């Protein structure tokens, strides 16, 4: 497995990470045994970065990963890099209620995460969003306290803008920024990516297949009950048709190269810099295998130009989140 450095101060990671969110109901029902088998297959293939959030399934995802690690070979288990987001508040019905990144909340969330995952430390700990009520310096300072206490190895950030990144980096070295980046979500290229590179901060890119939209597999008919994409603008009537037309254009390039649409999309992200680690959300072993096949796809300058022509920057129809969520994203503030 190809390795990439997660920022100048972070760990060596597999070139592709596994995002485990979808294994805890966010995209509709998932199969527990298949989820665990997929984590095992990822570890066996050399994937080391496992990404989760303590609010995914209200702890379900961390417990799932804990079970997978307990039943994995010790050498694979020990190689795993656990990346955990915190801050999202939910009620017993599963509704999102608030966000909390106060220093005491940071330490409280971490205590529960360590217990659920059954580990003594978290490799990368990150606020899932910027808490508008709490200076980022206070949140990062609390994580730094936990690093000094031995409970965390590295500070990460998620979905914050360039100004916030610079403030955070003055408090403690930042390992990586987790943020959406794909062929149809390229907003980070303007200010966020340059800021990260200037500071030596890596990118762990989620949404590289735009939640399946540009995977070549998603159709309107494939949507399941409980799938939050039903509320995502890019999947709405009036937008989704235009977005699937982009997928059709991408499919022609993939077909001529003898690879899948998903592999082209992931390979494109991989080609944007060796400081970027795509985090793929495979919930099944076949999807995992397909995604890892992107590591064998080399894109020439002509092919990259053809992809750019098929899916130009800004071509996506609709925002990546609903309006109320977009309004809370520090990464979208200019």
From TrEMBL:
Q: Which GO terms describe its molecular function?
A: oxidoreductase activity
Organism, scientific name: Caballeronia concitans
What is this protein's name?
Aldo/keto reductase
**Protein keywords:** Oxidoreductase
| Domain (NADP-dependent oxidoreductase): residue spans on this chain | 15-310
Q: Name one GO cellular component term.
A: cytoplasm
Query: Per its UniProt entry, which superkingdom is the organism in?
Result: Bacteria
Q: Identify the PROSITE patterns for this entry.
A: PROKAR_LIPOPROTEIN
List the InterPro entries hit by this protein, alphabetically.
Aldo-Keto_reductase, NAD(P)_OxRdtase_dom_sf, NADP_OxRdtase_dom
